[in-house]
Write a structure and sequence with these properties.
single chain, mainly alpha, 0% strand, flat, Uroporphyrin-3 C-methyltransferase, HemX, coiled coil
Length: 344
């Protein structure tokens, strides 16, 4: 009985130990789960805080950029207003100075500069000569600089603005475009037409130049061979195009050459619409009557399309402001001289 009780006690102890170990394992698992949930919660809270911080930083940068841009715009406006006020004040002071100045021996420099400015305007408006007009403006500015009169500063300012406007006018290589058109004429003369040229018909009288000789059978065989050469039977699945006669070919090539010469004349006269219309007509003739499947024909068409885009009549600026400013300067000086003479 004692031994049995000892065995039962041992078994009970083993069972209790196993149950305790199972409970401990479950407790450890629960503890790990709680720690994992806590870490996830902390990570989520940290991410949310980080997102909020980024949003605040972005909002702060946006507000800072807005304030900075606003300040820059205000500074620009203030500077522009200040510069305008300074220019107006300077012009007013210089006008008063010019009206108070007496006549001196440098009056001829003013007159020469006025003449040069007038020539510059005429050269630009009538002849569309940008380089010539710019050279006249520079010469007039040199005369005003030689006059050494601070009251002429507004006039020289206008000349500087007009020189900058002339320098901005795109340059045109008129000679290069003219030679390019001439080169296309020479290439077109060697291009093939899309239609065959009609050959002169050969009659039986032209073929039988010698009188028949020999026996009757030989003469009959010769006549049959010549008759066979005269009659040619051709089978075509599609309708045939009418052949071009040599006279029509010559007229077509001559017309195309005249159209390109017209575009060259429009180039020299700076007539943009006529220049483009002439090249369009040349392209129409090429596409309609020449073999566009050949690479040399397509190369000519591409080159003419490129030349058509050339602006042969660029827009010219107005350079009359300096002339008007100098005219007002001279008028004020004469008015001041007249007023002084009347007071005397």
């Amino acid at each position: 009985m004692g031994a049995l009780a000892l065995v039962l006690v041992i078994l009970l102890a083993i069972i209790l130990a196993f149950i305790a170990w199972q409970g401990w394992q479950r407790l450890e698992t629960q503890q790990q789960r709680l720690e994992s949930v806590a870490q996830q919660a902390e990570a989520s809270a940290s991410m949310q805080a980080l997102n909020e911080l980024e949003a605040r930083l972005e909002s702060g940068e946006t507000e800072r950029d807005q304030v900075l841009n606003s300040a820059v715009e205000e500074l620009r406006d203030d500077f522009a207003s200040y510069r305008s006020n300074v220019n107006d004040t300077l012009d007013q002071v210089l006008d008063e100075l010019s009206s108070e100045q007496d006549t001196d021996e440098r009056e001829w420099l003013h007159a020469e500069a006025a003449y040069l400015l007038r020539l510059a305007n005429q050269r630009l408006q009538l002849e569309r000569d940008v380089e010539g007009a710019a050279a006249l403006l520079r010469t007039a500015d040199a005369r005003l600089q030689e006059a050494d009169n601070p009251a002429l500063t507004p006039v020289r300012r206008e000349i500087a603005n007009e020189l900058a406007a002339l320098e901005a006018v795109p340059e045109l290589d008129r000679t290069g475009v003219y030679l390019a058109l001439n080169a296309q004429q020479e290439r077109i003369a060697k291009l093939r037409l899309s239609q065959e040229i009609e050959e002169p018909a050969v009659t039986a009288e032209q073929r039988i130049e010698e009188p028949p000789e020999g026996s009757f059978q030989r003469q009959l065989a010769r006549f049959g061979a010549e008759l066979k050469d005269l009659v040619v039977i051709r089978h075509h699945d599609e309708a045939l195009e009418a052949l071009i006669t040599p006279e029509q070919e010559s007229y077509l090539r001559q017309s195309l050459r005249l159209v390109l010469e017209q575009s060259q004349l429009a180039l020299l006269k700076e007539e943009q619409e006529l220049f483009e219309a002439s090249i369009d007509k040349a392209l129409q003739l090429l596409n309609g009557y020449y073999d566009t499947s050949r690479s040399e024909t397509q190369a000519v068409i591409d080159r003419l399309e490129e030349l058509k885009q050339t602006q042969i009549q660029p827009e010219l600026p107005d350079i009359s402001a300096s002339q008007q400013a100098l005219a007002r300067f001279i008028e004020r000086r004469f008015q001041s001289r007249s007023d002084d003479g009347g007071d005397a």
